[in-house]
Design brief:
Layout: E1 13-15, E2 22-24, H1 28-33, H2 45-60, H3 76-83, H4 96-105, H5 110-119, H6 128-135, H7 149-152, H8 162-171, H9 177-189, H10 192-208, H11 213-227, H12 233-252, H13 254-264, H14 269-281, E3 285-287, E4 299-302, E5 305-307, H15 318-328, H16 346-352, H17 360-369, H18 379-398, H19 400-403, H20 427-438, H21 446-457, E6 487-489, E7 496-510, E8 513-521, E9 526-531, H22 533-539, E10 548-558, E11 563-572, H23 574-580, E12 584-590, H24 595-602, H25 615-630, H26 638-642, E13 645-651, E14 656-660, H27 671-678, E15 683-689
Parallel strand pairs: 3-5, 9-11, 12-13
Antiparallel strand pairs: 1-2, 4-5, 6-10, 7-8, 7-10, 8-9, 10-11, 12-15, 13-14
């Protein structure tokens, strides 16, 4: 607030408890009523991101001469970012709906960005279709009066901004700018008596300017309808300019821009994951966190490479990372700082860093995240040795005074590396620990472990799903969704089979009841899965994050949003998919195998006596379930109860034989049986074969 004298002479103030912020006791309307000037200042993270981006850009490219104020505003490469809707991290244009709008509108000038920013909100959103069609030349632009053309031309004849209403009132109705602003306010408040008075003034002024009374009345009706949701152009222009600036750096300096964005959201795991994925789609390489190279923030190494920030590792904190950077002698955000003394192993690391700042939890988090990988020791061995390394460092510190009698203050002799021997982590264990530290899988994908087998059961990659999937040649069926129009479906008689890891799962209430909205990921793409009420109730326990599922469903295509999804007919786990796929458990053994031990291992997985005992019965059951699957049915357990047959591939010095166990030895096709079998010394291999 701005006053001509001391604020307390005009307005009572108070200080919010626990802060130093001074606040007016009058609300915004009363502040204006007593004649004070009021300004709203927004604190935007985007401004901090742009500042850090400029810092990184100038470090990478000393010849960069632009400032934010001098960036060219007509760069086609920047507008291509918007046309392709590659707007992750682009201010105000990140949402899914806005990205779909950009694909349709294809903006190619700053004025388009300003208009889209103003239109994409409740109220004016109804005008978006007309705006897009007029911009693309599919709809004719008509004006009620020729004088409107210069006012509305930039928005293709559509009233978008409050300033346009004021300008029309001035040019057509003869208003002064001050009176036009009062008209705008009156329209916003929708007071009937005041609007009736303003209508008479506008029509009379229009007639004096040679505009027919009927045309003036129609124009006022349009203005009145619009003013209820009109947006302030100056506000929208400021936002659009920021959006353009962020897009400029994403187009020309993507590593610097994405590193700055990642640094700004290090505490938000979901956002970090989204930005990492977008960085990779841009062709950038994101290097893993590294003890001797990473800084607290994400840092661009070169034009195409970003180094992971240690501050984004859960369980560390700014104090711990500062102690680590200080311990290796590096300064600032550059990994090549003069005077750096790299850590050579875990034990030396624990002896050099401040144990008060870098506790055991922080060290374990660094190991889980892979920050020690460059030291050449397996993560499992590192993790098992953390306690030992900290204890040795504490003992060394206790004797530091004696050791440093003739040395430099604080200098201690590094403890010899004495790692605890242990088995390396499996791929799944490594990724699970990585997720604990980073919040997501950075170096791999859970689906990779299952991909070879999953592709036999569901060969279609998510990236290869197309709108015509499931449609028979010459018979492209189209239907209307019960929830929203404009969705195209494949034929119900020809569903598609897919597999993927559940990335997220949530519920949503619709007119059809409560449904599950699940995001699947198979490493090639992500796809949304709609699980409707009855199936959702039966499969709720299966729809958990990080679970591998197999889906039979129909492809849905939303014409409005230009987006694919799958309407699920059935969802099953890997064990049930194996049973439905007639999998056999193949065990490769040599001649010295312990048959009694194999019996012990298989017994816990053996199906109960009431399960189908003959191949014929199993085949009939499987055929029945296949029919159910085609009809979208399935009870969720029946398929797994059929189990799978066991075949022993026996090899000795005399020859090779394949021994099929009887149907009474059908087993549940679970991963655990493979692990148990592979742990035996004479078992050469154990796999599910098809």
């Amino acid at each position: 607030m701005i006053a001509p004298g001391k604020l307390t002479d005009f307005c009572p103030l108070y200080c919010a408890q626990g802060t130093d912020a001074v606040i007016s006791q009058y609300d915004k309307d009363d502040v204006e009523a007593i004649g004070l000037v009021k300004f709203d200042f927004l604190g935007l993270t985007t401004l901090t991101i742009l500042d850090l981006t400029l810092h990184y850009v100038r470090a990478l490219d000393p010849a960069f001469a632009f400032t934010l104020a001098t960036l060219p505003l007509d760069d086609p490469t920047v507008y291509d970012i918007f046309k392709r809707a590659q707007t992750v991290a682009i201010f105000q244009f990140e949402s899914r709906g806005m990205r779909e709008l950009l694909k349709r509108a294809k903006p190619d000038r700053l004025e388009d960005l300003i208009a889209l920013n103003a239109l994409y909100r409740p109220g004016p959103m109804d005008l978006i279709a007309d705006f897009v069609d007029r911009k693309q030349g599919r709809q004719r632009i008509d004006y009620l009066h020729p004088a409107l053309a210069p006012i509305l031309a930039e928005t293709y004849g559509i009233m978008v901004y409050q300033e346009q209403v004021m300008r029309i009132a001035q040019v057509i109705g003869g208003y002064s700018l001050g009176s036009a602003d009062l008209l705008r306010r009156a329209m916003g408040k929708k007071k009937a008596d005041e609007m009736a008075q303003q209508r008479d003034i506008f029509v009379a002024g229009a007639e004096r300017n040679g505009v027919a009374r009927e045309t003036a009345t129609q124009l006022f009706d349009l203005m009145e309808k619009f003013a209820g949701y009109g947006f302030n152009k100056s506000h929208s222009a400021a936002y659009a300019l920021l959006a353009y600036q962020t897009a400029y750096f994403k187009a020309h300096y993507p590593a610097a821009f994405m590193a700055a964005n990642l640094s700004a959201v290090m505490d938000d795991t979901d956002k970090v994951k989204e930005l990492i994925e977008d960085s990779r789609q841009l062709g950038l390489t994101v290097l893993a966190p590294a003890l001797n190279s990473s800084a607290y923030r994400f840092v661009p190494v070169d034009a195409k490479t970003i180094r992971y920030g240690l501050g984004a590792i859960k369980g560390t904190g700014a104090g711990a990372i500062s102690a680590i950077v200080a311990g290796r002698g590096a300064a600032g955000d550059r990994s090549d700082a003069v005077g750096q003394r790299p850590f050579s192993d875990l034990f030396e690391f624990c002896s050099r860093v401040d144990a008060r700042a870098v506790n055991r939890r922080a060290v374990e988090a660094l190991v889980r995240a892979g920050a020690f990988d460059a030291l050449g020791v397996d993560r499992a061995m590192l993790f098992a040795s953390v306690g030992r390394a900290i204890e040795q460092a504490e003992r060394a510190a206790a004797h530091a005074g004696q050791a440093n009698l003739f040395g430099r203050p604080g200098e201690t002799s590094a403890a010899a590396a004495d790692y605890v021997p242990c088995q390396p982590w499996s791929e799944r264990e490594r990724l699970a620990n990585e997720k604990l530290a980073l919040g997501y899988y950075f170096s791999g994908h859970l689906f990779t472990e299952f991909e070879r087998e999953a592709r036999r059961l569901a060969p279609t990659r998510l990236a290869d799903v197309r709108p015509n999937f499931g449609e028979r040649a010459g018979d492209r069926a189209t239907e209307r969704s019960g929830d929203r129009a404009g969705e195209r479906f494949g034929s119900k008689s020809d569903p598609v089979r897919l597999a993927g890891i559940i990335v997220s799962a949530r519920t949503q209430n619709t007119r059809r009841g409560r449904i599950g909205v699940v995001v699947l990921d198979d490493g090639s793409a992500q796809l949304e899965l709609m699980v409707f009420s009855e199936l959702f109730d039966r499969k709720r326990a299966l729809l958990k994050e990080d679970t591998l599922v197999f889906v039979t469903g129909r492809v849905r295509f939303d014409d409005f949003n230009q987006r694919l999804s799958i309407s699920a007919d059935d969802v099953i786990d890997l064990a049930e998919a194996r049973a439905r796929g007639a999998a056999r458990l193949r065990i490769d053994v040599d001649g010295a195998v312990d048959a009694a031990r194999l019996h012990e291992i298989l017994a816990p997985y053996r199906l109960p006596a009431e399960a189908p005992a003959t191949a014929a019965a199993a085949g009939m059951a499987r055929a029945g379930h296949d029919a159910n699957r085609r009809n979208g049915a399935g009870n969720g357990h029946g398929q797994a109860s059929v189990g799978c047959r066991v075949v022993v591939h026996y090899r000795n010095s005399v020859g090779v034989a394949e021994l099929a166990l009887p149907d009474s030895w059908r087993i549940r096709p679970e991963d655990a049986v493979l692990a148990d079998l592979k742990s035996q010394p004479r078992v050469l291999a154990a796999t599910f074969a098809y």
